[in-house]
Amino acid sequence: QVQLVESGGGLVQAGGSLRLSCAASGRTFSNYAMGWFRQAPGKEREFVAAISWPGHNTGYADSVKGRFTISRDNAKNTVYLQMNSLKPEDTAVYYCARFGVYYARDYGPPDYWGQGTQVTVSS
Predict the structure, then answer these.
(1) For labelling alongside 9, which of 20, 95, 96, 104 has CA 20 to 30 A away?
(2) DSSP letters of 15-46?
(3) Quick one: DSSP state of residue 64?
(4) Given the DSSP bridges, would you call strands 92-98 and 117-122 parallel, antiparallel or unpaired?
(5) How far apart are the first and last CA of the chain?
(6) d(CA 47, CA 95)
């Protein structure tokens, strides 16, 4: 069974940093690209960042470029999202996701999702 478990969310002041983690079950992780999405109250879920397998290629939404960094530790079956210079508009539930391919220019919708972790940025 596929399992993606996020952690690391919380409350932080504007300008601060957080690191989200997503632990994946073994067969979920190897050979697949991974990504982060977010959903703010009253808004649709949106793409944040993606990383290919084994990690050579990354992509970001324009809104987070230069502030967020996605990475993966394949030995630990874990993907990370380092978030710096956080803004109140970054407040959302953040979801880890697995794509059904190891790399693509446009990944399309993920095939598995985590349960989400809340990130709240106060002004």
Answers:
(1) 104
(2) T--EEEEEEE-HHHHTT--EEEEEE-TTS--E
(3) T
(4) antiparallel
(5) 40
(6) 10
Nearest partner of 42 among 5, 91, 97, 110, judged by Cα: 91
**CB 57 within 8 Å of CB 93:** no
The per-residue pLDDT for range 59-106, each reduced to its tens digit, is 999 999 999 999 999 999 999 999 999 999 999 999 999 999 988 888
> Tell me, what amino acid is at 110?
P
Give the neighbor-by-neighbor strand order of the sheet with 18-24: 4-7, 18-24, 78-83, 68-73
pLDDT recorded at residue 105:
86
| In the chain, alpha helices (H) | 26-29
Task: Answer whether 9's CB lies under 8 Å from 39's CB.
Answer: no
